[in-house]
Amino acid sequence: MSKISAEFESIDLADLACSKIKNTIPGIKRISITDKRFPSSKDRVSYAYIGQGVNNIQPYVSIISDDRNPIRSAAKVDIICDPISSAQVKKQLISRGGLKVKELS
Known about the structure:
It contains two helices and six strands. The chain has helices spanning 11-24, 86-95; strands at 2-8, 28-35, 44-48, 60-64, 75-81, 99-104. Strands 2-5-1-6 form a four-stranded antiparallel sheet, covered by helices on one side. It has a two-stranded antiparallel sheet with strand order 3-4.
């Protein structure tokens, strides 16, 4: 089995590419799409909100900070397929907007 990964600018582009691959290339075993727009919980920061809330309470607000690891793509795709189909899968991913397309054996 071959594992091929790629990144896309949006979930929609990744979904379109994967549905086309699934319907036209034989030997696809598994396709997964991961949303990369939301960083892990370690990148969340809490701070006191400057201003007044209800009854003069300053609520704590959680923000998502991606200063340390800017996210360039919004979706990651992993495809497991037969080795014979891997070249076709990579071509389809690239032609449909896939970035950082690579094969992991």
